[in-house]
Structures
1.
Amino acid sequence: MINQLFEYFDFSQLESPDFKEDSVREVLILPLLTQLGYEQPHIVRSKSLIHPFLKIGSQKRPIKLIPDYLLKVGNNYAWVLDAKAPNENIQSGDNVEQVFSYSIHPEVRSTFFALCNGWAFALFRQDMTKPILYFQLKDIAQYWDQLYAHLAPSAFQMGKRFVYSPPKSAINTAPFDYLSQPLLEEITVKKRAAKRHFGVHGYFTKQAWNVVNQYIAHFSQPGDLVLDSFGGSGITAIEAMMLDRRAIHLDLNPMSAFLVDSLTHPVDLDELKINFEQIKFAYLRHEPISENTIEKALKKYPYPKDFVLPKGSDVQLIQDLFSKKQLAQLGFLKHLILKKSNKNTQKPLLLAFSSTLNLINLTCHPSGQSDITVDSAPMRYYRYRLAPKHKDLDVIKTFENKVKGVINAKFEIADKINQDTIANLQVMQGTATDLSFLKKETVDYIYTDPPYGKKIPYLDLSVMWNAWLELTVTEQDYALEAIEGGEHEKSKADYNALIAKSIAEMYRVLKFDRWMSFVFAHKDPEFWHLIIETAERCGFEYAGAVAQKNGQTSFKKRQNPFTVLSGQLIINFRKVRHPKYIMKASLGMDIGEVVIQTIEGVIAKYQGATLEQINDELIIKGLELGFLDLLKKQYSDLTPLLLELFDFDKPTERFTIKANKSFTTQIDLHLRVRYYLISYLRRLERENKIAIFDDIVLAIIPLLKNGVTPESQTILSVLEDIAYCVGDGWRLKADGQATLLLTGV
């Protein structure tokens, strides 16, 4: 069929002065668009656009832009196509800039734009200066698969969360199929339930271990290779190992590699306990306490000196973070650990020593009214801030507690770190921008949590630990660190480039038909769009974002609901051979309709929704469709709108559809039926009444008039899912009520 598209066209006609731009449009472009799958309603010709910036003349008359074709998918413009005369350049210059201006127009906002001069076809991405596809029209059969994959209506997607449904269990008993895995719902965080993570060693950010565990279990199988290129505290690698996957932990910070390697290295726990007791005995015999013994210890036992701390620190040099007594005692303790010749026991002891550093320094702040030291300022405040009221903890007691924590962690993971299984874990210090140690298409799943712009300068903040552990950080390491700001004053462009290169490498090593989950919590939409657009440019297909809470709502989130993410977003991508591309919504769309549809959808999904749930859904939708900026302007505070249009229950802090009112937007029929059925049955239970089927139908039919009105059989089908028959009436099932409780109702 494609071979016949221009089979009877004589391309020598293009040399005739009579074959002009209009001929290119009618003779060549229209058949091509039809073959791509566009029907007349979706081919918008010569639409007049007002230039958003320029006007001419003393009257300031608007300049009109008129693209030849705007191609629609749904209600949005997917791409722009302009016809040019056969003698015109379509690879660079004014023609390309002209069509680029159409693609970025507020009413269009398309990722792709194309030009055709009859001889050739050139396809561009908005963010690239050279064509991503260029071919002679006579050779179209050779390039058709690529062209179709980029521009067919099926190549585009309109976000992932417009259709709402009740929360579903992620349990899938069918044979494992990577691509068919659904997105996970938000997972309840269990921070302290795993000794392998809690109480071993602090780190600047830590993913909730059970969230990571469920994602790995959901998107991979035992024996698969799991990669985390921004490994941090090692949650991904360790949880992969616990689930019988192979894992690669990579991080630029040598402290990160040290923590994971020390925790997961095989060790005889009885021997480790004996070694600790020997160290404790030797320490207590010669502990530097008096002024004289402290001075002697400072001369005899090395400690880090003259390492310059980051700007903004309360002191300039590393030794000023400690009292003389702390330096002497820590130096002596480290000396005793290093005397142990067995590296297998030395590593976990050094891990406990490094964790001790977190509490034995002058930046340690007590916690609230308890006066118990929690951690050091770089972990809590992300800077070296001296504590106003420092509590001087006992070094050997602190070290003993940390050794117990390490032993508990190692005991919990002992079955997974013996000599037979340790080969399944690779711990490396290196950059996410270079995964050349991996061949292409060798990784089965990626779960990673990259730095968020200028939030945390990891290498700068790790100087205290890296110095004491004698871990080297080079200038090259600093150059490759994906942050904004920091001691090396990196720009936003530097950060963007490093993140983009990292994503490109992850795409290269991931197998086809596999997933990448990218954790992100930056408040600036620009960075979110960077992730999406870079991933799409590399070849990933966006599969959806999930709001994952951290258990608490911050003050900043409550004050700025549209710019501060509570918890984080887990952005999921698939590597497929023919990815679909996200279309940005034009600014001419009815944002109010989207807002109301979203609110009603979330209320229906959860049987009543909190402000947080509504905010998060709107953030995801606004980011996905590229209208968060407009959303912020028109709906900077949702509260007045919600209080006007919906009922609010103070005890549960949930918004619901007003009593005896129907949904105003096109929410899925079964979801609407379910919402009203549960509401009706719960009300009758509170009144200690039995719900009769005929009464149920009469009560909810009037509320279901927007869209398709259900048959009684439809209502009965939904009713049987959520309730059970009692004589002539119905009551909610216990498991249905349990489901409501799980969703917070």
2.
Amino acid sequence: MLNQLPTNVWNWFRGDNSSESSKFGTFPGVFTPTVLTILGAIMYLRLGQVVGNAGLLGAILIILLAHIITVSTGLAVSSVVTNTRVGAGGAFAIISQSLGLEVGGSVGIPLFIAQGISVALYDLAFSEGWLRIFPSHSGVLVSLIAFVIVFGIAYISAQFAARIQYLILGIIGLSLFSVFLASFPIGGRAGLTETAVLWGSFSEWSFWETFAIFFPAVTGIMVGISLSGSLKDPRRSIPIGTMSAIGLTMLVYLLLAYWLSLAASTTELLANTTIMVDKAFWGWAILAGMLGATFSSALGSLVAAPRVMQALAQHGILPFSDYLAQETKKGEPRQALYVSGAIGLVTLLIALASGGLNAVASIITMFFLITYAMLNLVVLIEQMLSTVSFRPTFRVPRWVPLIGLVGCIFVMLLINPVFSLVALVLVVLVYSYLMRRNLAYLPSDVRSGMFISLAEWATTRVSRLPPAVKRTWKPSVLAPISQTQELTGSYRFLRALAAPQGAIHALGIYPEGDDSALKGLKDLTNAFTDEGIFARTTFLEDADLVNGVRLATQILRSTFFRPNLLFLNLRAESDLDVLQQLVDKTAAYNMGIVLLARHPVRALGRQHLINVWISHQGNDWQIDLRWSNSDLALLLAYQLTQNWSGKINLCMAVRAEEDVNPATTFLHELVELVRLPKNSDVTVVQAPFAEALHEVSRADLAIFGLPNPARLTFCQEIVAAVDGSCLFVRDSGEESALA
């Protein structure tokens, strides 16, 4: 039995005990790594200077202000994790489940890189502490050996790393106990003999500069949260572990600030960064705690970073995701660990060669702050949406995440505006890249709900305002379809008619029980969406096409985003009676008519030149398009020209020779007032309308006004006379080319 003891102890450290779960509980998985990261180098090396510069009350105020952000973020995270099943990746998982993989990835990738680089930063801090004890040792060698040891522990298992951290937590506890003993006059020491300076002179740094020096001390909560995929019960462990760690460490910092103000003078505090070593009961315990804190921070970062990377890879966000998403039978992300270790090692070598990482350290702090800000934003959005699905078992008021969000932005600008901008630009670039990847949507994505709520809010506000449809008009096309081929043949034209801000509503009408003719209509509509055009498909069971369109139009006219154009095709084989009924009935629904007659051979040609025929304006030649039914014709001509990179030619037929010059002037003024492209031409022909059609150069598309009531046989005659594709349009009264 005794011979087996060392082996059993080793197996316990490695986590090889088969009876033990490989998942972490609250204490080893969240509380311990969070405490060890927060009680780090800032506590041992910078807190004394903060107290010396700001005084006791100033230091307490700085500590409390810094913890307001951390406490707010911790409470916000605690709320959101009690509402959802948090997967692997910590902050990445929380943000992705609410705002989508693109937003989660744009924050998760920089966060993973920051954690990888942090390994080198903490390793260098450990080396500096070691050299204070052994100044004759090689700093490069100490750094490399420390890195190898950290990587080796992380490689064995996260369980092994967690149990090593138990020892480090004990060492830090011993160093704090040494501080406590130094408070009393024992062992030949005088105890606390100084008088506390309540408010400092800020001779070294201003209040906010001192705040910026201290703030990195509280940016350690991400380590525990990042282990969410390795927790037995993240919904319970993250809130309890995070908040208890924040509460304990805040108390430690406040008590240490009080102790330092009584243990040393202002001069000593400002001049000596290792004042705690000199004033503690056992100086070696402080040095050991300093080494343990920096070592554990490096270890915690190297354990957390691969798990964030693995979570990113599991969603296909990273290159070589299939490789990086792999794990061992015990759940260790070895492939991601290799990459994380490589990032840390390369960063360490660069730092050793260049002499420091101050700039990179500032950017890392920004990435953590951006992550905190996004976590608060997620909770704030979820709260504002007021959806039934958001019912966390731990609720916080809205002002909690709001304070956290505003505080993060404020601190970023306070610490370093330049690095804040650099970090934000990197996040935006990653987001832009991921948006082009067309990543999958997660079921819990609340972006659609967010935009729906915004639309509902806007709809409510707009309903209280006078309508301004002419100023905000854009094409919203209703296309009744009885066969999918009809939409296929009109696809390119409809795309040019609607892009980029218009909409297309495909109305599939089929007889009872037989929708076979509409097979593939949904896929075709989705193609519009893929090209950035809002498109929807509605299926209506009705044997009568005219009645189906009438019903749909009556229903849709009461909706907020209703169609304003009815698109129809005029072909040689078209049923003119059906088209005539559709055109006539639509006039009562305040919808414009777009009737396309494509030439059977030329089709739309080069999709370049558009002839727009304007009616004679009468003897006064005043610009007033309301009676001439030309507003929609001009608007659609402009819309098509923008998407075709084409050219507009305004045409008019006049009977008298004395009308040629006024008509020409009128059309040129119309080009200016309608704000048509500068390359637009005008053509005035002295001839009857039927003859003028032959004298104007053939265009790829000719646009004519459609009178009310319309006569479709006359439209067919115009198509034959033009010998090209024509578009007949009728205004609804809600368009204005002059608006």
3.
Amino acid sequence: MSDTDIDLDELERRYAQERDKRLRSDGMAQYEPLGKRFAALARDPHADPDFKRAPIEEDGEVLIIGGGFAGLLAGARLREQGVDAIRIIEKGADFGGTWYWNRYPGAACDVESTVYLPMLEELGHVPTERYPRGSEIQAYCGRIAERYDLRRAALFQTLARKLRWDAGRARWIVETDRGDRIAARFVISCTGLLSNPKLPRIPGIETFAGHAFHTSRWDYAYTGGDESGGLTGLADKVVGIIGTGSTGVQVIPHLAAWAKHLYVFQRTPASVEVRANRPLTDDDFAGLEPGWQRQRRDNFTTLTGGGYAPVDLVGDSWTDIIRSVMPRLENGEPVADVEAIRRAEMRKAEGVRQRVAATVRDPETAEALKPWFHYFCKRPCFHDEYLESFNRPNVTLVDTQGKGVERFTPAGAVVAGTEYPLDCLVLATGFDFLVDYCEEAGLEIVGDGGVDLSDRWADGPLTLHGMQTHGFPNFFMMAIAQAGAAVNYVHTADEQTQTIAQIIAETRERGATRVEPSLAAETAWVETIVEGAKARRAFLESCTPGYYSYEGRRERKAALNDFYAGGPMAYIEHLRDWRDAGGFPGLDWT
């Protein structure tokens, strides 16, 4: 396709038209957390419901909240620094985080395993596939825990509830839902980016009399099968699914293969590219020099962050996206040609729509599945069977014209006045993302002088590097707000945990009782984030609603949730330079 085939003005008009159809006055309030009204849906299907233990009271060095990759990496890097007295609190019954909860059929990572799975060289591990399944990733989390002796540190099926800084003891006092009272010199909050499932606030949803569950709490007792499919329990069931993002794209082919009939309720179509998964063998790693994973990761993050690299070491659909819109070189230096990038992005999006037209046989269904928005407005999806699912006679796409399901009755879902009777409702509606930190983490955090973190951050987060906040000494958080938002979050998390572990080691070496960012350093960083994010905010305002754009209704305080404008690789290099410089300028030790 040539540039002359693209009418930019016409596409912009179409994009705006589709965006306006989906704008809602309630914005992010159209969702509610899993729990409260729907406590039964929040039950952990993988845990022992009768699990009990006596409360513990102890004084330790470091307490980590969360047992996903961030928590595991924090524990591993602390072990490398010689820290033994570590305690990990995890609400699930095992390590894995996102990959503990998301066990739905088809669950897999959309980032190549060689750059996503951390510490491959340290553990000598060879992933089985280019894009590994969720069960393999969770098992790998267990390998990290065993390698760094973290399992003995874990309190599973436990929720941290309140953190309070005790200035007299220079300790955080942490209370849990099991009556524990744990004093820790340092706390690292690794509660995850995708840890708090959300449900749509659709009128009448609580009255639906059929079976319902969220994809992060998949009910195999009802559906039968496992992550590979085989959902025999659905053979006589009419199933509806809400959500056509990354999770829905992976789930729908399996539901389509086994359900008597499947209704896919679509508000906004996904942009779906080729995944092209394949097995990996030792030959894929033959001849690699030590340090290959860091080199490969850096290359992937550079390219997918919009930067320039002379070679593409991964060469998949992710990096192909960026190659299509990469800055051109002038005198050996990358130069961003805004108009050329705009045309390339439009051309890329048109290619996605042409793939839909070439794959889906019914013209009306194909038209409804075409995404009409700027390519980078939403996280792109990758799958090789999703679009083909709509060629099955037992699959019906219910295109809601951007409005979503109108309401529920006890019998089913209503769209545009038509009721669709359902036996089962699957909610692939995702997780809270970049909302109030304490609410999302489920934590009450009270710092120096009795200041509540929710109060201090009433107008948005205030941090240094997205990891520390003034007035909350010895407290660290793993987040992407005011940090580097990478396609591969684990890369960012690994660099953050290395930084945190070195700060803790430095604090111990100095014999200091507390460390925190100075107010001046924090203020300067926040100003950097706000100033650098203006262009991104303007772009998101043109986007169809989604979690990147706060469903098109961005509150004022969300402005501080933006990312480091230099891109994820620039953020990672900034952290490396900060660590290597020594002394961690901007931090105050007492």
